[in-house]
Write the structure tokens for this entry.
Amino acid sequence: MTHASAKRAIRAHLTRDRILDAAEEQFASRGFHGVSIRDITESAGVPLALANYHFGTKQQLFGQVIERRGKEHAAQMQKYLDEVLAAAPQDKADPERIVWAFCASVYERLIHGGRGWQRYIRLLAWSAEASQHEDFLEPLNRLFDPVLASYVRALRKSYPQMSTVDLYSAFYLLQASLVYTVAATGGIDRLSRGALRSTDFKRLLPRLVRFCAGGFERLARGED
């Protein structure tokens, strides 16, 4: 590769990253349907044609945004669960530790991941609230559905007596709690008059885990 071609390759790589960063930010804050390719390129400070050249359609760009960090994040979520299961007899872990693995694998990104990971986690939270029949969510579901299924299987081993409806209801409500806290809307800041801030993930994590684990336990006992 000549010096000139190497410089062109570097510029192309930097341009792609600028577009991906801008798209991640825009999609996370406004959703897939609320953003145009022009909005993204204006935010990135690049010509519209470059987004089309590097990524094609808006749906293809969204898929690239999801996949850029998605494999690493899905692997981390699975790793947290695997470590909990490895420490448990016959893979039958304390359910609270499973809930902790699910929540902590996400909160770790918010606490220590930096701005890029914070954007990405907000984007996942927004995507979780979108209609799951949308075609543009296919890359996300392909990456994360196997991990979610592994958490459900682990919880089933811990609660063999739990009905299928109760198991999935509890997991659904766990997801809902996680998505809302990740959004960090600031509503609890106002309501608590500053006693708790929605961005205080270190304080929220253990409380979220205890709260959701308690819900699993109550449903597992079959109490109405």
Remarks:
- Residues 58-86 form the longest helix (29 residues).
- The chain has ten helices and no strands.
